[in-house]
Amino acid sequence: MMTRREMNGTLAAAVAAFFAAGVGTRADAQAPSQGGHGQMHGMSPVKTLMQEPLGDIPNPEVSVITLEVGPGTVSPPHEHIGPVFAYILEGEIENQVEPNPPKTYKAGDYFYEPAMHVHKMLKNLSATKVAKLLIFQVGEKGKQFTVGVKS
């Protein structure tokens, strides 16, 4: 069984490795800071672009998935039982997680969603092209990750 500290380190390393190539920019333009990941031989120093707590999740599991959002598609309101780290691979979306207002993200942008916050909507802003996201999600092993919002 992986400890919480090992899980945090593994997720941080995976996210840092993905963004290490310098392809990501955060839509709200926060300046990246130098992380504690050091430098690997032949590679530039790793920059921490985003760092958030994972929370206390029993029997944690990390999934890395791709999500394709069809042209003009809008997701229904829902919640995630664990935090979500998302990177926009293709397209342009509008995303809203309470209590924040909707924000627009394009290829190369990324965002964080805290656990159990109402994800009001995710909308593909194109009427003709698929939007594609790379998502790192943390949840409880064997349990559904996304749950509908109760009225």
Folded structure, characterized:
The protein has 151 residues and is mainly beta. It has one domain (4-148): Sandwich (Jelly Rolls), CATH 2.60.120.10. Helix content is 11%, strand content 38%. It contains one helix and eleven strands. The strands form four sheets. The chain has a four-stranded antiparallel beta sheet. A three-stranded antiparallel beta sheet has the order 7-6-9, with no helix packed on it. A two-stranded antiparallel sheet has the order 1-2. Strand 6 and strand 7 (103-106) form a beta hairpin. It is globular. The termini are far apart. 21% of the residues are buried. Residues 1-35 have low confidence and may be disordered.
SSE inventory with pairings:
Elements (H helix, E strand, L loop, with lengths): L3 H16 L13 E2 L12 E2 L11 E10 L8 E3 L3 E7 L1 E6 L5 E4 L3 E4 L5 E6 L6 E10 L5 E3 L3
Antiparallel strand pairs: 1-2, 3-10, 4-11, 5-8, 5-10, 6-7, 6-9
Kindly list the characteristics that best describe this protein.
11% helix; mainly beta; Jelly Rolls; 1 helix; 151 residues; disordered N terminus
Give a short synopsis of this structure.
The chain is mainly β and 151 residues long. The chain has one helix at residues 4-19, and strands at 33-34, 47-48, 60-69, 78-80, 84-90, 92-97, 103-106, 110-113, 119-124, 131-140, 146-148.
